[in-house]
Design a protein that fits this description.
alpha+beta, 2 domains, six-stranded antiparallel barrel, six-stranded antiparallel β-barrel, 3 helices, about 25% strand, elongated
Amino acid sequence: MVLSRRWWDRKSLQIGLIALVLGSAWVLRQTQGTLLLEMYQGITRPLQMLQAGPTPEERLRDARTLELQARIVDLQTQNQKLQNLLGYVEKEPISSRPVPARVLGRSADHWWQQITLDRGANSGIKEGFIVKAEGGLVGLVESVTPNTSRVLLISDLKSQVGVTISRTSAKGVLRGDSSAEAVLEFYEKVPNVKVGDFVTTSTYSQKFPSGLAVGRIKSLDLKKLPASVAKVELFPPIRSLDWVGVYPKPENPIPEVENPQPTNSQP
């Protein structure tokens, strides 16, 4: 009896393992491996989902979410620009407040030449009206339809604006350069001007009222012939215009000098 118990104690573990193996084999045979396959799939499914990436439905949902986020950001930006313009307009006297207008179209081939606004004759806009934005002068309305206006920008090569240096009253003509800068040709051979001086429209201008901010002197070439010239950094954000204010044409009997003849006067 004692020997039987000792033998059982030594062999019970082995017998149990053999029984487990035989039982598992029988179960696999009866289920044809279905249970084992389900266990394997349950373990590996999370890993497969991580490796496979998002489903088409998830990608579509993410794309829609990103689209909505982009539209919200754009609307917030446009709203802020409009509020800035309205705040700028409200500073003007009631009798001379401009017509707010949004840039409706802009050709890549004429980016620095012209813009199209979403306001026209039905809003009281006429040819020759002044267009301004935050920073100062933008351009001049050159053609109008009932609901749109085309604006010649001061950065256009054809644009000519009579300007003056605020510090010294030196005068000249500002010409567009198809960029965020313009070229200023002085009336004097050697004008009293330096880098950093502010440039505004002059009292000689018939197209624009005097005192409109234009930009500041960025560089000088006092040896240029036949007249000294300067590079002017334009203040208005012509590169990225969205909203502008359209003002009536000024009444000024003094003609504008658009083709200056340099003199030999010294400063």
